[in-house]
Amino acid sequence: xxxxxxxxxxxxxxxxxxxxxxxxxxxxxxxxxxxxxxxxxxxxxxxxxxxxxxxxxxxxxxxxxxxxxxxxxxxxxxxxxxxxxxxxxxxxxxxxxxxxxxxxxxxxxxxxxxxxxxxxxxxxxxxxxxxxxxxxxxxxxxxxxxxxxxxxxxxxxxxx
Length: 160
Hints:
By secondary structure, this protein is α+β, with helices and mostly antiparallel strands. The protein has helices spanning 9-28, 43-68; strands at residues 95-99, 103-107, 116-121, 125-132, 135-142, 145-152, 156-158. It folds into 2 domains: 9-68; 95-158, SH3 Domains (SH3 type barrels, Roll).
């Protein structure tokens, strides 16, 4: 049976209210009868059980939604003064290309009118992080400086 991802106090409160609610519904309708615990059978008890169960569902749904959509992790910038390029950190570099023109511009956005971060020389090997039409979001390392930006597909050739 899969586990329920509870990661906050709201989730634990939700489980508590849900269990109490189900108990009150069962006891109020006469389905469950425990001699050591006195619970009055009637509408007031099962309505209170419904309210507790609804509160539990609300608390649990808030907690489960917060674990489904975690906050994005910050990405390190490639160099101190270069403009940053945003990319989804869940993408993994799967394709490797090399520059086949003498000089290829690396842009901040997939558009030739955007700012040029730097230029990559011929035979520079780059890893592809994302694709958008005729543009590739690439990353590469020169010395100790990692650069990430957009390059036109026409200036690259697939290596592997």
